[in-house]
Amino acid sequence: MGNLFKIAIRNLFRYKRRTLLTVSLIAIGVIFVLGYISIAGSFKNMMIAQITDSSLGHLQVHRKGYMAAVDSLPLNMNLKTRPYKILEDVLKSQPEVEAYSPRIRFGGMFSTFVETTSIRMNGVYPDQEFKTVPLLTSRVMKGEKHLNRGEILVPELLSMGMGVKPGDTVVIVTTNQDGSVNGKKFTVVGILESAQGPGGRDGYITFEDAMEVLRMPEPEVSEVAIRIKDFSQETAFTEKLETLLGKELNQKGKPIFDVHSWEKLSPFYNIARMIDVMSIFVKIMLVAVVLISIMNVMIMAVYERVREIGTIAAIGTLPRKILSMFVIEGFSLGALGVVIGNFIGLSLIFILNLTGISFDFGRQKGLILKATIDPLDVLIVSGIVILISVLASLQPAWKASRMEPIKALRHV
Amino acid sequence: MGLIVAENLSKNYQVIATKVSKDYGTAENVVRALRGVSFEIEPASFVSFVGPSGSGKTTLLNLVGCLDKPTEGNLTVVGTDVLKLDRHESAQFRGDNLGFIFQDFNLIPVLTVYENIEYPLIIVKNTAAGERRRRVMAVLEAVSMVDQKDKYPDQISGGQKQRVAVARALVSDPKLVLADEPTANLDSKTAYAIIELMKKMRNERKTTFIFSTHDQKIVGEAEIIYALADGELVDKQVKGGKQNG
C-alpha cells in the first residue's frame, strides 16, 4: 500500500501545475465551508444566546393550554400554588438546572397621568430572573440595573413614545381575575432595550407587586423560565422534563404541565434552521467542486497514461491494483486539499477572532463576532471531501482497470 | 495428432501453438492477421520471429504473451492452455511467468531506474523488501546499470532505457521473455548490445527469449528464426542448418 501511495504522489507531482490548481480549488472550497460554518454557526449561537439569555430562558414550563392562549395572557390559565410546588420540587432535584424563574404575565394599561397605553408586564423575583436570563440587566439602557418593590423596568419603545425616563412615576392599571380593575403607582427604575423574541418588549415589576396589582391572594405563576448549565443538552433535558412532568395529572387525568424549548417559543428558530439548511447547501457546493475537479483531473490522468496503464497491465498488474493506484491518486489530491484547506481555514478563523469584528443584529449594536468551529464539523468536512475524492476517481480508475492491455499499448 | 501432443509434452515445450489463427474486424470486413500457425519453442531458446510489417509478428507475440486470444487453434504457454484464462487469470499468469520488453521501452517515468525494475516485485509479486533489493541489484549488475539506478528514465539514453527494460523483464525470474521489436528505436551498435545482453541473460538464467524484428542484421543473432509472411509461417531456420516450417 505504501508503494502505491508513493507512485500516486509521484504521479501527482508529474503534473505540478494541474495538481496545484486542483488542490488549490479543493483547499479554497474547504476554507470557504469552514469559514461559513464557523461564522454562520457562531452568529446563530450568538443570536440564540441573545434570545434565551435576554428574556426567554432555555426552556419554559406552563400550565397545559396556556401557550395556545398566550396572546391574551390569560390569568385563569396560571399555575396555582400546589402544581407550582410540584414543578419547583422537580426543578430543584435536577442537576442540569442552573436557575429558574417563576413569572406572572399580564396585560394592562400604562399611564403617565398625561397619556395612557397598553403594556405587557412580567412579575418576577429579580434575583431568580437575573440568574435565569443573565442578559436582562445588560438590556437596561438608562437607570438602575436592579428591581425592587414599587419599581418598574419600562421597555425602550414605550419610554420613547411616552417620554418616560428613570425616576418618573407611572401607574399600571389591570383587570383582575374577578373582573375588577386595580391600579398601582410605580417609579421607573430603568429603561429596557428591546430584545428579539417573545417577551422582548415587556415591562418588569416584582412578583409581589404583580400579586398586589392583580389582587392575588395566593401566588400564581403564568410561566417558569429555566436556564440549564449546558445548553448543548437542551433537547435531552427538555425530553427528560417532559417525561418527569408528564406523570403529573390533574383531576381529569390530563397532564398539568406543558414544556416548551426555546425553539417552540421563538420565531428565530426558523432563521436558525435556515442557517443550518444554508450550511448544507454550502457543503453540497463543496461536494460539487471536489467531484468535478477530481473527476476532471483523474479522467485526464487516465487518458494521458493509457500506454503506461497498458504496460503495467501487460507485466501482470492485476486490475484491482490498477484501480487502487488511481483511486489513491484521487484520494491523495483530496487529502492534500483538505490538509491545506484546514490549515488555512482554521488560521483565518483564528485571525478573524483576533481582529474582533463587530456587527449589528436588529436593534442590538456592536456584537463581537466570535467565529468558532466544532472539531466534529472539521472532521465532517474533511471526511466529505476525501470520500467524494475517492468516489470521483472511481469511474476513471475503473476505466483504467478495465483497459485491454493490448489496446492500451497501441494507444498513441 | 495424439502422437504430436505426446511428443510435445515429453519435450516440455515453453510454447506450443497449434493451427493458431487471429482475425480482426467485423464479420463483413475480416482481416486475418494469423492463418493457422503452428510451432513449438523449447525452454532456454533464443527465438526470433521475422517478417515485414503486417506479417503478424506482433499479433503472434501478443497471443503468446496472453495479451490477446486466438480466434482459432490451441495455444499452450508454459504448460498452460491460455485460451482458458480469464482476464484476471491472464494478468496473474503474465506476472508469474512472462517478462515483456517493448519497442518504446515503456518505463514508468515517475519511477527511478531502480524503482522501475523493482515495480514487478512490489506490485505484481509482493516480494519481501530484502529479497527485492537482492534481486534488483543482481539484475542491475547484470545489465551494467548500477551506477544509473537513481536516475529517472528521462535522464538516461535509449540504450540504457532498454537495458532497464530487460532488467525489469528478468527481475521476477520469468520462464519466458517476449520482446516486440526491442531494437527498433536503437542505433545498430546499441541494438547489438541489447541482443547480446538478452543472449547473456538467457545463458545465465536459462530463460526463453522470443523477440520479433524486421532488422536483418539483428535476425542473425537468433538461434531459431521463424519467418512470417501474410500471417503464415513460411520458414524456420535453426542456426547451423535450415528447416522448412
Structural description of this entry:
The complex is a heterodimer of chains A (412) and B (245). Chain A is 53% helix and 20% strand. With 412 residues, chain A is an alpha+beta fold. In chain A, a hairpin with a 2-residue loop joins strand 11 and strand 12 (364-368). The radius of gyration of chain A is 31 Å and the shape is elongated. The two termini of chain A are 30 Å apart. The mean pLDDT of chain A is 89. With 245 residues, chain B is α/β, with parallel strands linked by helices. Chain B has a single domain, classed as P-loop containing nucleotide triphosphate hydrolases (Rossmann fold). Chain B is built from eight helices and eleven strands. Chain B has helices at 2-11, 57-64, 87-97, 113-124, 129-142, 158-170, 188-205, 216-219; strands spanning 15-25, 30-41, 46-50, 72-77, 80-81, 98-101, 176-180, 208-213, 224-229, 232-238, 241-243. In chain B, the strands form two sheets. In chain B, strands 6-7-8-3-9-10-11 form a seven-stranded mixed sheet, with helices on both faces. In chain B, strand 7 (176-180), helix 7 (188-205) and strand 8 (208-213) form a beta-alpha-beta unit. Chain B starts with a helix and ends with a strand. Mean pLDDT of chain B is 86; it is low at 1-10 and 241-245. Chain A binds chain B through residues 3-4, 7, 10-11, 13-14, 307-308, 310-319, 321, 405-406, 409, and chain B through 62, 65, 67-68, 87-88, 91-96, 98-100, 102, 104, 106, 108-111, 119-120, 122-124, 168-169.
